[in-house]
Predict the 3D structure of the following.
Amino acid sequence: MRIISIMNRVLKELFRDKRTLALMFLAPVLILLLLSFIFNSNSTTDVDIATVSMPSNISANLDNTKHVSVTKYNTKEAAKRALKDDKVDAIIQQKGSNYNLTYANTDSTKTTVVKMAFKNAMTNTTIETLKSKLTVASTALAKVQSQMPNASSSMAQKKQTTVKPKITNHYVYGDSNTGFFDKILPILMGFFVFFFVFLISGMALLKERTSGTLDRLLATPVKRYEIVFGYMASYGILAVIQTIIIVMVTVWLLGIQVVGNIFYVILINLVLALVALAFGILISTFANSEFQMMQFIPILVIPQIFFSGIIPLDSMAGWVKDISYIIPIKYSGDAATRVIMQGGGLSSLGSDFGVLFIFLIILTILNVVGLKRYRKV
Amino acid sequence: MADSIISLKHLVKKFGNQTVLKDINFDVHTSEIVGLIGPSGAGKSTVIKTALGMEVADGGSAKVFNTTMPNRELLANIGYMAQTDALYDDLSGRENLKFFAVMKGLSRKETINEIEHVSKVVDLTDDLDKRVSGYSGGMMRRLSLAIALLGKPKLLILDEPTVGIDPALRRQIWKELQHIRNEVRGILITTHVMDEAELTDKVALLLDGKVMAFDKPDVLKMQYDVDSIENVFLKAEGVL
């Protein structure tokens, strides 16, 4: 009864605070939309290359490469000036049989693209040279063959077999447009839930403490766990609504494919929200003001992004990787990725759920015991 | 002799190595209003927090209804009003009252009757459905008092209940407090207003973590050979 009453009260307060409500429900949608624009429209890098005294066939090959444009400069000085003025991204100069490449290197992706393009152009040029030599050889061969008429028919057959093979792409998840955004989306969802629930619940309990209502609440025969559970129930409901909105936006508006059961995604985020709530309440006891609560964001919330799996964990050093084991968002991200991208069922999510529940139980116990600071029974 | 509701004996309370309460002895009986007066920092709030069980005594004993505090169930019989208003601003007055009524464990029927009764006492009946954020300071104070009165608790602990309340309403509240006393209930009240102290049945004068004097206002005035509690206070502090 008391739990429900506390839940009702917290929900009532939240739904009357329109700004906070908008922050919880509209901010994630806005950020998701922006991210999808950024990652989906800018998936290619265009580079400009300056060439100085380059053979025309290599230049042409470079110019034919997608997203690469070539500008000819007569002297190295002119090219360097262009590089400095940010007009070109790299200079290629031939010296004898060798090539000198100078990169602006202000954007490492562009440097890589130039390196690749140049390598390809060189390979193509070599192949062309070989081809033309081959043509010369085969015409010579044809001449010899025409003098021996019996073999001409078998030669024609061979020409047909050199047709280019056709390549067909199959995608297990998504289509050819599936990119980085699709990969980070399941993790981002969890991050939004975690961030907003952590912040708002922490602030709510802080306010309860500083305004004296917590003392007054504890001066009634309410049990300490009833307060914690009341908060959990209300923020659980809020997290479910938030997750449903985020999932609807990603599926209907952004057209992201969800292979598995959406209900599991909501379940994962509900558990994560409860972890965030317990964490927020616990942390709020270490803050004396709203501003001090905000100070925990760069220390405790932002680093979670780095270990959540948005940046591939495989490439990290061993000990850095180990940090990710204590990051709740990593587990929700793994589980959500499995459901959304691989269509995993509940059984495949067991270990992630298990770890999240362990987080939840430990934090909840700490909170119930921690309230003893304000009332000794 | 009436029953003792609060009984503090040789109460000691320390925070770190600072001893806030050194030796507190006094009782609150049924049908009694006890005023706790003393300068800021004398430990008035600590006495109250120990009586409520929010703090544990480091020495001596703190008993409420003959039970050693802290004790959670007993809190149902105590109405507490803190110095801060401690209200939920986004809720209406009625919602605040309803919430705390549930927390105190009142039944649904009791809740409705009690809300009607206490809001009449503090003169808030017409404003019950307004949000607290729109209340004036005095209205918030009255709502806070109304919450403490919910459920007719046998013991009221009021920390500065009449700060920011205008004289007419203050008189009305004191009338209600005296009415409560006559219902065989007990009240412990802290105050800075010395003429309010005159209205109590007994005054406990708290100074440096000790009860310097504890008796009826008239007896205290005679003991200190002055004509008002204010002068008792000043004389005890050594100013006069």
Observations:
- The helical segments of chain B are 44-52, 93-103, 108-121, 137-149, 167-182, 194-197, 217-224, 229-237.
- The mean pLDDT of chain B is 87.
- The radius of gyration of chain B is 18 Å.
